[in-house]
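Quick one: structure tokens for this chain, please?
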Amino acid sequence: MENSDLQRIRYIRVYCEEIAATIKRFGEDFDVFSGDTDYLKSVSMSILQIGELSIGLSDEFKDNTKEQMQWTAIRGMRNMYAHAYARMSKSKIWETATKDIPAVLEFCDGIIEEEKAKEAPVKAMSLSEKLEHCKKIASETSNDENAQNKKDKESR
């Protein structure tokens, strides 16, 4: 996974947590939500930010996780918040905040845990083992590049 994807997933997680905290603060009651402009705007802005961040995820990441997360729908919601906010249904915003955002949070937690598990063996290595590990990766990358360069020359 690209580092920029992981960083975006972490930020998306933060906005999911902010939505959960806002709901906890104001109460999980649609009537309160729909009657309180601050509550509504706070949740809506966080959902907009989640959509904005998701747009910047790499195509490879979105393609690899499309079975787990509906990136197109998230982008679509972002566009509605950004361009048609006044026409947004309060019930749709509420449903997104209370049903969809917990699933996004769970997804983000899973991705972050997967990445931590990948990093754990490297962190447990001694300094000399880390150096050897880096040399091995560099050598493999160099070999891959050399093979690709050879293919490119042969195809010309």
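The chain has two domains: 3-119, 125-156.
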